[in-house]
Amino acid sequence: MKSCKLNRLILCCASLMPVFLSCSQKEVLMGDLNVIPVPFEVVEQNDGMSFVIDRSTKICYPEGNEKMKRNAEFLASYIKHLTGTEVKLTTKADEDAIQLSLDETVGFDEGYELNVSKNLVTLKGKTEAGVFYGIQTLSKIMPITDGTKLAAIPAGNIKDHPRFDYRGFMVDVGRHFFSVDYLKEVIDMLALHNINYFHWHLTEDQGWRIEIKKYPKLTEIGSKRNGTMKDWETKEVDNIPVSGFYTQEEAKEIVRYAAERYITVIPEIDMPGHMQAALAAYPELGCTGGPYEVATTFGVFEDVLCAGNEKTLTFAKDVINEIMDIFPSSYVHIGGDECPKKHWKTCPKCQKKIKELGLKKTKNHTKENQLQAWFMGEVEKEIQKRGKVMMAWDEILEGNPNKSTTVMAWTSPEARVRSVESGHKTIVCPITNYYFSNPRNNKLKGVSSIKKVYDFEPVPENVTEEQKKNIIGAQGCIWTEWTKDSVKMEWQMMPRIAALSEIQWSEPQNRNLDDFLKRLKHQLEIYKAYGYNYKQDIHDDLGK
Ligand code: ACM
Ligand code: ZN
Questions:
Q1: Could you tell me whether strands 471-478 and 166-172 are parallel, antiparallel, or unpaired per DSSP bridges?
Q2: What value does the mean pLDDT of the chain take?
Q3: Which residue owns the Cα nearest ligand 1 atom 1?
């Protein structure tokens, strides 16, 4: 088998073309080094040579390194899934092998170098994470075969590293609940796109989804609602109960699963707004005392946490401490979006706290907005005690928050400018471009839906070079008011997440929409091979 393989010469290097019959009578399909996200540097040998994967191929990894062993297992499983070929793992360096190794000389922590020749593939990373990203690239280079054909990887070199340290994707499980098993599949989808942060939006007006041992009613009462609004126009509610929450053990399982794929799970407990489910469980935490019910409709609700009540602050700190016990992430997101101040303006406790703190209306900040910033700042102290960083949505800027807060700029493209000008580390996720559940953008067909994401450069031009450095990454978001199941989830995600991944990973000078669309054809085949329900209308624009 082996000598037969060494004698093979690929006659034609057109990508993904069946090229010849080998001595084992198996047709060979050639892969393509041009993947999504586009690597930093790709040099194709263009001499027709290739590395053919067959049953004698081995994956070598360094002995005693469990993460590298897992990396090797991931690669073997991708090869099996995409090409049908079973390859073996070994810790002995060998020819006819894909050799995974760590190498300090690779310049970037998440960077890798891939070298493909006829007899050997070497994949080096400075870290295990870098090797993992190289494995993602390798899996996308391989042609998809049905197992009756062999896969060949064209000879060449790739040097690659990410543009941004923060490459995120958010899923809201408050409006609709998704099982642990399905979230693991979502995490696999993120890994395929080199995403390294899974922002898990865990609480909403419509459902509290994470077990908090000190406040059991949050899940006993707050995780259940009686029905769901059917559409915006009529606001009619069906009578189908919706419920679900994650135990702390299940959440830790998600953290573990994600970490194996070099993804950090950032928990979000959204406060002081979007808290109606918590208020239904503990009405004494609201300004009016209720009664409240877990919301069955969508929108922005006036019932929010009472920021002037000592009990509320204790509640918030207790919850965040339990959250930090579950999630090792150095970021903790505490929301801060869409918090109407109507009740605070007349609530004796909130007004007393404003007086006590000496908060005065300024040109840019109302007293109540500053009360919110104070409340979140107190929770931030709790987060900082444990050496972690608070994240919040950009509305927090309305209240003059601490500079230590990392801001997610969602409300508009301008929000990212305001945020970096105010000196905050900023993650760019504008509703106009990176929200994959925005109904208006969902109506866009084919390339127009891709363009909306692909053409939005996260770093604004009209700020100083120093301020530009405060843009630490970009994120896509799926809010699930109208996303009840996996079919809709994936239809919204893919292929737009491929465009997002190129924004997050690739250098702007390497990005080109026409070129991206050429590479997208194979990405869609990968989605198909994994059984993902991607948005199909793009096929028409790509000319199948
Ligand atoms: C948000 O979309 N309310 C952060
Ligand atoms: Zn109040």
A1: parallel
A2: 94
A3: 337
